[in-house]
Design goal:
Strand order of the largest sheet: 1-2-7-6-4-5-3
Helix content: 25-40%
Largest sheet: 7 strands, mixed
Order of helices and strands: HEEEHEHEEEH
Distance between the termini: 103 Å
Low-confidence stretches: 38-60
Mean pLDDT: 83
Structural class: alpha/beta
Number of helices: 4
Radius of gyration: 33 Å
Number of domains: 2
Shape: globular
Number of strands: 7
Length: 219
Protein backbone atom coordinates (compact mmCIF):
# COMPACT_ATOMS: atom_id res chain seq x y z
CA UNK A 1 0.00 0.00 0.00
CA UNK A 2 2.76 2.39 0.91
CA UNK A 3 4.45 1.63 -2.38
CA UNK A 4 1.28 2.54 -4.29
CA UNK A 5 0.98 5.83 -2.44
CA UNK A 6 4.57 6.70 -3.30
CA UNK A 7 3.91 5.81 -6.95
CA UNK A 8 0.83 8.04 -7.11
CA UNK A 9 2.68 10.90 -5.43
CA UNK A 10 5.55 10.57 -7.86
CA UNK A 11 3.17 10.53 -10.83
CA UNK A 12 1.39 13.63 -9.57
CA UNK A 13 4.72 15.35 -9.11
CA UNK A 14 5.78 14.51 -12.67
CA UNK A 15 2.42 15.65 -14.04
CA UNK A 16 2.69 18.89 -12.09
CA UNK A 17 6.23 19.38 -13.37
CA UNK A 18 5.10 18.71 -16.94
CA UNK A 19 2.21 21.17 -16.45
CA UNK A 20 4.58 23.84 -15.18
CA UNK A 21 6.92 23.17 -18.10
CA UNK A 22 4.01 23.45 -20.55
CA UNK A 23 2.87 26.70 -18.98
CA UNK A 24 6.42 28.04 -19.23
CA UNK A 25 6.54 27.07 -22.91
CA UNK A 26 3.21 28.80 -23.51
CA UNK A 27 4.49 31.94 -21.81
CA UNK A 28 7.65 31.88 -23.95
CA UNK A 29 5.59 31.36 -27.10
CA UNK A 30 3.33 34.29 -26.20
CA UNK A 31 6.38 36.49 -25.62
CA UNK A 32 7.93 35.40 -28.92
CA UNK A 33 4.66 36.01 -30.76
CA UNK A 34 4.28 39.48 -29.26
CA UNK A 35 7.92 40.32 -30.04
CA UNK A 36 7.55 39.13 -33.62
CA UNK A 37 4.37 41.18 -34.03
CA UNK A 38 6.09 44.30 -32.69
CA UNK A 39 9.01 43.74 -35.08
CA UNK A 40 6.69 43.32 -38.06
CA UNK A 41 4.72 46.45 -37.16
CA UNK A 42 7.94 48.44 -36.72
CA UNK A 43 9.23 47.21 -40.07
CA UNK A 44 5.96 48.18 -41.76
CA UNK A 45 6.11 51.65 -40.20
CA UNK A 46 9.73 52.17 -41.25
CA UNK A 47 8.97 50.81 -44.70
CA UNK A 48 6.06 53.18 -45.05
CA UNK A 49 8.21 56.15 -44.06
CA UNK A 50 10.91 55.12 -46.55
CA UNK A 51 8.30 54.67 -49.29
CA UNK A 52 6.80 58.09 -48.63
CA UNK A 53 10.28 59.66 -48.56
CA UNK A 54 11.21 57.87 -51.78
CA UNK A 55 8.04 59.07 -53.48
CA UNK A 56 8.79 62.58 -52.25
CA UNK A 57 12.37 62.44 -53.57
CA UNK A 58 11.19 61.25 -56.99
CA UNK A 59 8.53 63.93 -57.42
CA UNK A 60 8.86 66.56 -60.10
CA UNK A 61 7.37 69.38 -58.06
CA UNK A 62 9.13 72.65 -57.36
CA UNK A 63 11.59 72.64 -54.50
CA UNK A 64 9.58 73.27 -51.33
CA UNK A 65 12.66 74.53 -49.46
CA UNK A 66 13.10 77.46 -51.85
CA UNK A 67 11.24 80.60 -50.86
CA UNK A 68 11.09 84.07 -52.39
CA UNK A 69 11.10 85.29 -55.98
CA UNK A 70 13.04 87.28 -58.55
CA UNK A 71 12.44 91.00 -58.18
CA UNK A 72 13.35 93.43 -60.96
CA UNK A 73 15.80 96.17 -60.05
CA UNK A 74 16.19 99.69 -61.42
CA UNK A 75 19.45 98.64 -63.11
CA UNK A 76 17.68 95.93 -65.13
CA UNK A 77 18.99 93.08 -63.00
CA UNK A 78 16.41 90.91 -61.24
CA UNK A 79 17.63 89.47 -57.93
CA UNK A 80 16.21 86.88 -55.56
CA UNK A 81 14.33 88.53 -52.71
CA UNK A 82 12.11 87.52 -49.82
CA UNK A 83 13.52 84.10 -49.19
CA UNK A 84 16.27 81.60 -49.82
CA UNK A 85 17.30 79.37 -52.70
CA UNK A 86 17.76 75.77 -51.63
CA UNK A 87 21.13 74.10 -52.28
CA UNK A 88 20.18 70.43 -51.87
CA UNK A 89 21.73 67.82 -54.18
CA UNK A 90 19.03 65.69 -55.83
CA UNK A 91 18.91 63.09 -58.60
CA UNK A 92 15.38 63.99 -59.69
CA UNK A 93 14.20 66.49 -62.27
CA UNK A 94 13.36 69.82 -60.64
CA UNK A 95 10.61 72.23 -61.64
CA UNK A 96 12.13 75.67 -61.14
CA UNK A 97 10.07 78.84 -60.58
CA UNK A 98 11.90 80.76 -63.32
CA UNK A 99 13.49 79.87 -66.67
CA UNK A 100 16.39 79.73 -66.90
CA UNK A 101 16.69 78.93 -63.18
CA UNK A 102 18.91 81.01 -60.92
CA UNK A 103 19.33 78.54 -58.07
CA UNK A 104 17.62 75.87 -56.01
CA UNK A 105 18.00 72.11 -55.70
CA UNK A 106 20.38 70.72 -58.30
CA UNK A 107 22.23 67.66 -59.56
CA UNK A 108 25.36 66.60 -57.64
CA UNK A 109 27.37 67.00 -60.89
CA UNK A 110 27.96 70.52 -62.19
CA UNK A 111 28.03 71.47 -65.87
CA UNK A 112 31.56 72.30 -66.96
CA UNK A 113 31.77 76.09 -66.92
CA UNK A 114 35.36 76.99 -67.70
CA UNK A 115 34.36 79.09 -70.70
CA UNK A 116 32.39 76.14 -72.13
CA UNK A 117 30.09 76.77 -75.09
CA UNK A 118 27.37 74.18 -75.75
CA UNK A 119 25.48 74.04 -79.02
CA UNK A 120 22.71 71.91 -77.49
CA UNK A 121 20.58 72.55 -74.40
CA UNK A 122 22.04 71.42 -71.09
CA UNK A 123 20.11 70.13 -68.08
CA UNK A 124 18.90 72.83 -65.70
CA UNK A 125 19.94 70.75 -62.70
CA UNK A 126 23.59 70.60 -63.80
CA UNK A 127 23.74 74.25 -64.85
CA UNK A 128 22.32 75.40 -61.51
CA UNK A 129 25.18 73.57 -59.79
CA UNK A 130 27.55 75.64 -61.95
CA UNK A 131 25.84 78.81 -60.75
CA UNK A 132 26.41 77.65 -57.19
CA UNK A 133 30.13 77.58 -58.02
CA UNK A 134 30.00 81.20 -59.14
CA UNK A 135 29.49 80.79 -62.88
CA UNK A 136 27.47 83.04 -65.18
CA UNK A 137 25.22 81.16 -67.62
CA UNK A 138 24.62 82.81 -71.00
CA UNK A 139 21.52 81.49 -72.75
CA UNK A 140 19.87 82.33 -76.07
CA UNK A 141 16.89 81.39 -78.23
CA UNK A 142 16.54 80.88 -81.96
CA UNK A 143 15.53 84.56 -82.19
CA UNK A 144 19.09 85.66 -81.35
CA UNK A 145 21.07 86.58 -84.46
CA UNK A 146 23.87 84.34 -85.67
CA UNK A 147 26.34 87.23 -85.28
CA UNK A 148 25.31 87.72 -81.64
CA UNK A 149 25.58 84.01 -80.88
CA UNK A 150 29.08 83.88 -82.36
CA UNK A 151 30.17 87.02 -80.49
CA UNK A 152 28.74 85.71 -77.22
CA UNK A 153 30.53 82.39 -77.72
CA UNK A 154 33.84 84.19 -78.27
CA UNK A 155 33.29 86.17 -75.06
CA UNK A 156 32.44 83.08 -73.02
CA UNK A 157 35.36 81.02 -74.35
CA UNK A 158 37.88 83.47 -72.93
CA UNK A 159 36.08 83.93 -69.57
CA UNK A 160 36.56 81.30 -66.84
CA UNK A 161 33.48 80.51 -64.75
CA UNK A 162 31.06 81.02 -67.61
CA UNK A 163 29.05 78.70 -69.83
CA UNK A 164 26.70 79.18 -72.74
CA UNK A 165 23.88 77.11 -74.23
CA UNK A 166 20.61 77.47 -76.18
CA UNK A 167 17.45 77.81 -74.08
CA UNK A 168 14.31 78.08 -76.17
CA UNK A 169 11.80 78.56 -73.31
CA UNK A 170 13.20 81.81 -71.95
CA UNK A 171 11.34 85.09 -72.37
CA UNK A 172 14.06 87.04 -74.24
CA UNK A 173 16.51 86.16 -77.03
CA UNK A 174 19.59 86.61 -74.80
CA UNK A 175 19.69 86.22 -71.03
CA UNK A 176 22.38 86.13 -68.36
CA UNK A 177 21.94 84.15 -65.15
CA UNK A 178 23.96 83.86 -61.95
CA UNK A 179 23.05 82.44 -58.55
CA UNK A 180 20.11 84.56 -57.44
CA UNK A 181 20.44 87.10 -60.29
CA UNK A 182 19.30 87.44 -63.90
CA UNK A 183 18.96 89.99 -66.68
CA UNK A 184 18.33 90.28 -70.40
CA UNK A 185 20.69 92.01 -72.85
CA UNK A 186 19.83 93.33 -76.27
CA UNK A 187 22.89 92.00 -78.07
CA UNK A 188 26.44 90.76 -77.65
CA UNK A 189 27.62 94.38 -77.74
CA UNK A 190 25.25 95.52 -74.97
CA UNK A 191 27.48 97.15 -72.29
CA UNK A 192 25.34 95.48 -69.61
CA UNK A 193 26.88 92.14 -70.63
CA UNK A 194 30.33 93.15 -69.39
CA UNK A 195 28.84 94.76 -66.28
CA UNK A 196 27.03 91.55 -65.40
CA UNK A 197 30.17 89.46 -65.94
CA UNK A 198 32.25 91.83 -63.81
CA UNK A 199 29.80 91.69 -60.91
CA UNK A 200 28.64 88.09 -60.95
CA UNK A 201 31.47 85.89 -62.25
CA UNK A 202 32.71 84.56 -58.89
CA UNK A 203 30.81 87.48 -57.34
CA UNK A 204 29.65 88.05 -53.79
CA UNK A 205 26.47 86.05 -54.44
CA UNK A 206 28.46 82.83 -54.99
CA UNK A 207 27.51 80.16 -52.41
CA UNK A 208 30.70 78.14 -53.05
CA UNK A 209 33.41 80.53 -54.27
CA UNK A 210 36.43 78.87 -55.82
CA UNK A 211 34.68 75.54 -56.39
CA UNK A 212 35.62 73.72 -59.59
CA UNK A 213 34.19 74.49 -63.02
CA UNK A 214 36.00 71.58 -64.67
CA UNK A 215 35.72 67.85 -64.10
CA UNK A 216 31.92 67.93 -64.23
CA UNK A 217 29.44 67.15 -67.00
CA UNK A 218 30.80 67.91 -70.46
CA UNK A 219 27.45 67.91 -72.34
Amino acid sequence: MGSAKKSNAGRKARIEEMRRAEQARERRNRILTISASVTVVAALVVGGVVLVQSQSDDSDSADSKTTGSLVAGADGVSTWKGGKLSQTHVSKKVTYPVEPPVGGDHNPVWQNCNGDVYTEAVANENAVHSLEHGAVWVTYTSKASKADVEALAAKVKKTPYTLMSPYENQKSPIMLSAWGAQRTVTSASDPNLDKFFEKYVQGEQTPEPGAACTGGKAQ
